[in-house]
Amino acid sequence: MNKAEFIKGLEEELELEITLTAETDLKGLDEWDSMAAMLLIGYVSNEFGLTLTADDIKNISTVQSLIERIGVEKFN
Amino acid sequence: MLQHFKGIHITALKTCVPSQVVSNAFFEELLSPKEIKIFEKTVGIKNRRWATDNITALDLGYEAANSLLKEHDVAPSEVECLIFLSQTPDYKIPFSSNILQAKLNLPQNILCLDVNAGCAGFVQGLGTAFSIAQTIKGKVLFVVAETLSKILSHKDRGTSMLFGDGAAAMLIERNTDDVSETYFQYFSDGNNADAIMIPDGGYRNVTTSHSFEIEKDDKNNQKNRLQLAMDGARVLDFTLREVAPSILQILKQANLDKEQIGAFLLHQSNQFIIKQIAAQLGVEAQKFPINIDQFGNTSGVSIPLLIQSQAENIKTLDKLILSGYGSGLNWANGIISLKQTKIYPQIEL
């Protein structure tokens, strides 16, 4: 999965009405709440087999910061 | 702590839920249609049962227990111990099991014991019941009952949609002809005691007029200090961190492989959590039955409700995992067979 596919998939998973970019602040989204966090954890877990923790969720800001937490090397 | 039993069984089980069904449409003022859709997709709850004002957890527990004793043809004198497990008892004093003893016409030479425990309570209470059953000739009647609907603020998105009411009654007894094994294992993390809490109304923070004042958070969730407060992110993190490794630990201690387990009966708190735990364990999701869509999170009652709704399937399986996790924070697992268990049809009150 490349970065663009990941971002598009995340946008669909969170059912966003805006277009997500690497610079989007996830916590600033109208849709951001605990359920969005669950969708995010589920999406990352399904795609990368990585379970994000509450600390990860707390530390993530932009989509790029999420990608860096997952590991940039995992995106081709 | 790990417990190991041989020849102790749940011989009969009966569940009772309130007849009042509350669907997600009830929360339309709290969540938009899109938010409700995402809630159903993640948490998985569509309906829950809520007791009406005049029905308490003790009433639900009584109906389950009374029906169980009648249908299973048990004389009151056969019951030597009654355990009532709940976080929503009728009174602070006296304790509920004593009231239930009289309502069920059980003899006076009986041990009545209340256990205050949450979502891990089914396993905690069952382990207590097994421990007592091992030392007596008669039966232990274990009743778990909750009316969490009565402690919720309907203006708090973090709790109001999640919880439901219900009760289950079980008979636990010794049968040395069948020496099948049962294991229970318990964990506690009291450092996170405030993650799920009703702050006032006990004797640390006694009830004052201030207890009834509505407090708002930054998302405009509103509740008073006598209603349930939950730090959802902390609880989610705890379950995703602790439960799967603890299940692997009890399997190892029982010398079993996860492949030998017929079904994993997990506390029904959140469909997303159950699926994540299945993935963490590397076990196919079909082995993790789910009925949270019908009943919501009923705390310690959720696993018995799941057993009831999976009755036909469960009878054919040799070994089952039980796993509860929640307020305390506490978590507890069991390995059990329910082949000997007569599971009676659910009733409504």
Give a structural overview.
The complex is a heterodimer of chains A (76) and B (349). Chain A has 76 residues and is an all-alpha fold. Chain A has one domain: ACP-like (Non-ribosomal Peptide Synthetase Peptidyl Carrier Protein, Chain A, Orthogonal Bundle), CATH 1.10.1200. Chain A is globular. By secondary structure, chain B is α/β, with parallel strands linked by helices. Helices cover 27% and strands 26% of the residues of chain B. Chain B contains nine helices and 18 strands. In chain B, the strands form five sheets. In chain B, strands 2, 5, 6, 7, 8, 17 and 18 form a seven-stranded mixed beta sheet that branches. In chain B, strands 1-9-16-15-14 form a five-stranded mixed beta sheet, sandwiched between helices. In chain B, helix 5 runs parallel beside helix 6. Chain B is globular, with a radius of gyration of 19 Å. Chain B starts with a strand and ends with a strand. Classes of the chains: A mainly alpha (76), B alpha/beta (349). Chain A: InterPro entries: ACP-like_sf, PP-bd_ACP. Chain A: Pfam families: PP-binding.
Total domain modules of chain A: 1
Number of helices of chain A: 4
| CATH superfamily placement of chain A | ACP-like
The CATH class of chain A turns out to be Mainly Alpha
Structural class of chain A: mainly alpha
Give the class of chain B from helix and strand content and strand pairing.
alpha/beta
The N- and C-terminal alpha carbons of chain B lie at a distance of 37 Å
Helix count from the secondary structure assignment of chain B: 9
CATH topology name of chain A:
Non-ribosomal Peptide Synthetase Peptidyl Carrier Protein, Chain A
Largest pleated sheet of chain A: none
The low-pLDDT segments of chain A are: none
Detail the poorly predicted runs of chain B: none
- The gyration radius over C-alpha positions of chain B equals 19 Å
The best one-word shape of chain A is globular
Q: What is the string of SSEs of chain B from the N terminus onward?
A: EEEHEHEHEHEEEEEEEHEHHHHEEEE
In terms of DSSP E residues, the strand content of chain B is: 25-35%
Helix content of chain B: 25-40%
Q: pLDDT average of chain A, as an integer? A: 89
Pair with the most extensive interface?
A: A-B, 19 and 24 residues
